[in-house]
Amino acid sequence: MPLRALRSKGSPLLYRMPGSALVLMVCAVALLLTLGLSASFALRDRAAALQHAQDTAGNASLLVAEHAARLVETSDLILKQAVQLAGPADAPLPSDRAGWERYAALVRGTPYLVSIWLFDADGNPVLSTRRFPTPAMNVADRDYFVAQRAGGSEAGGNLFITALDNSRYSQESLILLSRPLAAAPGQFRGVALVAVSPRYIRDIYKSFDFDYARSITLRRTDGTVLLHETQGPDATDSAPAEAAGEPEISALRRVDSVPLTAEVAIPVSSVMERWYGQLWTYISYALAALAAVSVIGGMALQRARRERQAENALQHAYDTLEERVHQRTAELERTNGQLETAVTDKEVLLKEVQHRVKNNLQVICSLLRLQAARIDEPARRAFDESLRRIQCMSLMQELLYRSDQPARIDFADYLRQLCDGLVRSTNPTGARLTVNAPQPWSLDVDQATPLALIASELVSNALLHAFPLGHPGTITVELLPEGDEGMKMVVRDDGDGLPPDPSAAQSRANDKRQSGLGLVLVRALAQQAGAAVTIDRQPDGGPGTRFIVSVPTLSKAQTKAA
């Protein structure tokens, strides 16, 4: 069924009414107006809540900066007293019990101080209010010691503030303030250090009245965090109010006369929690608008459902068609596989037949040789002729068996092997035989067989009869292209040659070259191969005879190598 028919089938009456577009427009305008007004009021309240949080963070950052300035100022006074108690530049650093008592009194009088330390020029502790005698350690690689050693007394006794995350004594992070000890110009005597407990500072920050969750951070100007304290909206709740990567409303303020910054951050989620409580008023208006358009929404859902049904039907039809195509493809592949197997079996069978034919021909040759040994000379000559022809066909079958193409043979290679066998078996005068076949010729077996027998007849005839006086001569066999698709085979000798008149030759009983079956067989085989035989007596004015076998058209499937 078409998709359009599916969409129109069973539609409600209201869906088909011409005024449905007007109803949809009225409902959309009413919904947008209601939602727009509700969103406008909600966004206005949200902006007001965010601005209030921004103002709160700014005021709190000012308060935190003032408190941090006073804390550093009082701690620095204690630190300067510790530097004075260490004595002048040429005095030894105090390490006795009396010196320890004086520094311990400074710590006891200041509730937010944890300890005071004196370190010599090598970073070894000389005095510590934590314990007497002073524990063994080395701070030569700490950042505060490296900074003071780099400045020395020539830096004017600069104050350096840092943090120590893990204290081996207090098990809490500490804020460290340090100054260099008085030393001679160009000399470094050591460092005085006071440790401030962040717990005292956090207790003060917890007393700040916030309506939101917040975090307070003290940093150095290079970004090093000295203190980070988080708290929920309830002053008694110390749970963290911020999550990793959560947006915040922050206020940053520089601490007066100290290289510190105070930052107060309020998570946006804490502000939004208070604002969400006011959203229910606006949500009620939105729900009323949603109820007004629920009928229209139901119609839209019904239409979407029908479209999905149509798409499912089309998809089912497509899947069915694709499955049938796959099945048909699989059937064709199986059929092709069976055909390939049958072709392979046929080739194997053909190879086996050729092999058996070759073996049978060899058996026949062996039988003929045995029979020829029991008969007289004239009859043996006929046996030899028959044996030679059978060997010619046996060689053909052997090359077919070796070939990659069961029904085709390289005639040039066959001609070379044939001539080599003939010159070794049928050469009473010791004539020299040369074969010139510069390129391969792939011929069909039906055309190659008569041409092979022709070559065997002509070459063996030249070897036996071209030189009757017994003097050696030369026989040349050439296989050359002729025209666009043809081939010619030339067999030439420089012997006595044929008589000028064939009829006269037939009357001569002692002329063996014309009185036998050879030339008649050559002409018959040439007609079978579609070739023409030309006899040239005294070629180029010289001695001998030349036979030219011209094949104007070879098999279409042959392949020539350039």
Automatic annotation (TrEMBL):
Chain segments carrying region Disordered: 492-512
Every Histidine kinase domain range: 352-555
Catalytic activity as recorded in UniProt: ATP + protein L-histidine = ADP + protein N-phospho-L-histidine
Xref: CDD domains: PDC1_DGC_like
Enzyme Commission (EC) number: 2.7.13.3
InterPro entries documented for this protein: HATPase_C_sf, HATPase_dom, His_kinase_dom, Sig_transdc_His_kin-like_C, Sig_transdc_His_kin_sub2_dim/P
TM segment ranges: 279-301
Pfam families reported in the protein's UniProt record: HATPase_c (PF02518), HisKA_2 (PF07568)
Coiled-coil segments: 304-338
Enzyme kind, highest EC tier: transferase
Keyword annotations of the record: Coiled coil, Kinase, Membrane, Transferase, Transmembrane, Transmembrane helix
GO molecular function terms attached to this record: kinase activity
Protein name (database record): histidine kinase
The organism of origin for this protein: Azospirillum formosense
